């Protein structure tokens, strides 16, 4: 298993997808649904796009866990990376969400699958901070360098620096917080729309970090172990070029292969030299997801990576400790919608 690129992912097949009105105010990447188009048609297109992403990742040799969701009150459940992260050593993070109608995206059935199929030792749950108005939306708010143990974070009301410090203490990361804004001065709502960190390459819109000194510190930290930085423009970020994720797949012969998953729209925005720089270390897997992108997120937002050791078949599940759990059982799910390992 690669430290940076997980070989398994979790996707949510949201049957009732729609752009979320509760997140439109601070998500400058979000668009309204086409006027006059029935919700059922939009949702059906989004399901087809999610299926296409799952098929593309399976085709690249990535293990894909798909969870069904037909709850019409969870319009953004297709983006599980905001409430869940997993880490080497068997640690799972659960996060506080800004929009109240996103908080019940947290699902106990997903956690139970992780505990039964992978070695999970500890679940650290920060969701009890929500009543205090403190939020850190998982690997949307943080872009994690699992190799150098750095948590890159664009500060916003969805990424509180106090809970970021707690996360870094609990999980053993160095915080690298910075302000990031677009050309109109609007803060970037999630770090993962402007940055993607792979094993040997990073995509990042450094120009959107206005503090020049901090910008250079971020660049230096990204390259300290020889990683190549591909600089994105704000225009490319608006095409979701930063919302990509490196994964570790397998060839049909069983050889390891690294892939950079992104949307077709993001891929089209890249210049030839940027594509060449990415493809020096990984193959680009691009899928067209225009309906899902209406919600202001793209392929990276759809993927919760599994950085856990897999259990051998037939091994009994070990007890899992709950640490820093503000709520004993904060997850709201009926548990009936699990789809197994693909």
UniProtKB/TrEMBL annotation:
Biological source species: Nocardioides kribbensis
Signal sequence extent: 1-24
Pfam families, alphabetized: DDAH_eukar
Protein name: Arginine deiminase-related protein
Renumbered residue ranges of the record's region Disordered: 312-342
Domain of life: Bacteria
Biased composition (Basic and acidic residues): 328-342
UniProt keywords, alphabetically: Signal
Coiled coil (residue ranges): none
Presence of keyword DNA-binding: no
Keyword Signal (UniProt): yes
């Amino acid at each position: 298993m690669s430290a940076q690129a997980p070989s398994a992912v979790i996707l949510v097949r949201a049957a009732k997808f729609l752009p979320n009105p509760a997140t439109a105010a601070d998500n400058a990447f979000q668009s309204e649904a086409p006027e006059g188009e029935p919700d059922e048609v939009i949702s059906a297109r989004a399901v087809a796009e999610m299926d296409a992403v799952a098929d593309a990742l399976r085709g690249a040799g990535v293990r894909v866990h798909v969870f069904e969701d037909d709850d019409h009150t969870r319009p953004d459940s297709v983006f599980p990376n905001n409430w869940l992260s997993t880490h080497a050593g068997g640690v799972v993070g659960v996060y506080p969400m800004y929009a109240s109608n996103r908080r019940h995206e947290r699902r106990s059935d997903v956690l139970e699958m992780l505990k039964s199929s992978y070695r999970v030792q500890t679940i650290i749950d920060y969701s009890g901070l929500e009543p205090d108005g403190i939020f850190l939306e998982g690997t949307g708010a943080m872009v994690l360098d699992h190799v150098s143990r750095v948590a890159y974070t664009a500060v916003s009301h969805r990424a509180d620096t106090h809970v970021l410090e707690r996360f870094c203490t609990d999980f053993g990361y160095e915080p690298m917080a910075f302000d990031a804004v677009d050309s109109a001065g609007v803060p970037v709502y999630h770090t993962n729309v402007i940055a993607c960190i792979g094993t040997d390459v990073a995509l990042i819109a450094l120009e959107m970090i206005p503090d020049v000194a901090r910008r250079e510190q971020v660049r230096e930290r990204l390259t300290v172990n020889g990683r190549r930085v591909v600089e994105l423009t704000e225009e490319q970020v608006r095409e979701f070029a930063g919302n990509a994720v490196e994964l570790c797949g397998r060839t049909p012969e069983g050889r390891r292969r690294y892939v950079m998953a992104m949307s077709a729209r993001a891929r089209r925005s890249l210049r030839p030299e940027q594509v060449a720089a990415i493809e020096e270390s990984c193959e680009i897997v691009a899928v067209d997801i225009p309906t899902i992108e209406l919600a202001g997120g793209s392929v990276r937002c759809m993927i919760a990576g599994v950085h856990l050791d897999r259990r051998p078949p037939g091994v009994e599940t070990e007890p899992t400790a709950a640490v820093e759990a503000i709520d004993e059982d904060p997850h709201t799910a009926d548990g009936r919608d699990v789809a197994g390992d693909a």
